[in-house]
Design a protein that fits this description.
5-stranded antiparallel beta sheet; alpha+beta; rod-shaped; 348 residues; 67% helix
């Protein structure tokens, strides 16, 4: 005798007969579920939300001077170049920052707009949760950044999305300006200091030239040649005059050469520092957009939430499934009870 259990085969005709037998009950259930779900998902019970979006790309370069003044700037620093992964990640981080979040909350009075009790102990927590639920940022499949805003007022949704896009420039430029201004101050101090040092050197050289030192090497050579001629002629007066000039050269020639060489070096440094100074000045004082806006937000004419047909469909299917379970339970419960009672009365 085999111990294998024999399972009854599935007979779809029984299922069809079951559905046909209870067709009226299912039909009534479906109609009631559809009507109720349509009413519940209406604006009487759920505030509709409208979605507005902004799509934009980050710029590849953050520094104006590197984009416009640097001769070694590569293609990645082109002012017209779209940003890549790193710039996209930076843009998302800035968009999620408190600096933008707090400005939007304040500008649009979102605590009142969202109906949050400002006397509540957890008002900020609720406000930020509502903000993060309604306002999202994500990277698109084309490496752009999408700002998505949901609100029950379609115009407010569009205004918030466009304001966030505009604030990106403000916040990012403010963050960069803090460093740029400090860098400009450093370069300005260095530039002014170098100019002052050069001015002092030039004044010292002017004083040495007044003493007769104009070009030490050339003067020394010419005076020595002329001295040899005067000695050969026996011109004592000429020899004394040339000796005096040689004494002046001997006394001031060394400082003259040192100053002249130092001045030449410092002027080269001044040219380099001036270029850096101009770059720092532009970065500290000029403004450049940090993004390329592909799509601005506009007032939506169609609600984005709730999606009524999904709610009605899922509710109706759920009601039909529950109805089927209840009917099966009611049909089979008496039979199951009789079997249980029969087993309990079997003789031992």
């Amino acid at each position: 005798m085999t111990s294998e259990k024999v399972y009854p085969e599935f007979d779809s005709s029984k299922l069809l007969m079951f559905l046909y037998r209870w067709r009226k009950a299912f039909l009534v259930t479906a109609i009631i579920a559809a009507v109720v779900s349509m009413i519940v998902s209406s604006s009487l019970f759920i505030d509709p939300l409208y979605r507005s979006t902004v799509i934009m790309y980050p710029a590849s370069s953050n520094s104006i001077s590197k984009s416009l003044l640097n001769d070694n700037a590569g293609a990645k620093q082109d002012i017209l170049e779209f940003g890549e992964d790193a710039q996209t990640e930076q843009m998302l981080q800035v968009l999620n920052s408190n600096k933008i979040k707090d400005r939007i909350i304040k500008s649009f009075d979102l605590a009142r707009h969202y109906g949050i009790d400002t006397s509540s102990r957890y008002k900020n927590l609720r406000l930020y949760r509502q903000y993060e639920s309604n306002i999202t940022f994500k990277r698109t499949e084309y490496m752009a950044v999408k700002i998505s805003v949901l609100d029950h007022d379609p115009q407010v949704a569009a205004d918030i999305a466009n304001t966030i896009a505009a604030l990106l420039d403000t916040v990012k430029n403010d963050m960069q300006k803090e460093r740029a201004v400090q860098g400009f101050r450093i370069m300005d101090a260095e530039y002014q200091k170098l100019k002052a040092e050069i001015r002092v050197m030039e004044d010292s050289l002017t004083e040495l030239r007044k003493l007769g030192v104009h070009d030490y090497e050339t003067q020394a050579e010419m005076i020595n040649q002329q001295l040899a001629i005067e000695i050969a002629k026996g011109n004592k007066r000429g020899i004394d005059a040339l000796d005096n000039k040689l004494k002046v050269l001997a006394q001031y020639g060394g400082p003259y050469v040192s100053l002249r060489d130092a001045l030449e070096y410092e002027k080269k440094q001044l040219s380099f520092v001036k270029a850096k100074y101009e770059e720092a000045k532009i970065d500290a004082t000029q403004y450049i957009p940090q993004k390329f806006v592909v799509e601005t937000a506009y007032k939506s004419e169609r609600k984005a939430y709730p999606i009524r047909w999904i709610i009605v469909t899922l509710s109706t299917l759920s009601a039909l499934f529950m109805a089927a379970m209840v009917i099966l339970l009611l049909e089979n419960a008496p039979l199951a009870l009789r079997k249980m009672r029969g087993q309990n009365h079997e003789p031992v």
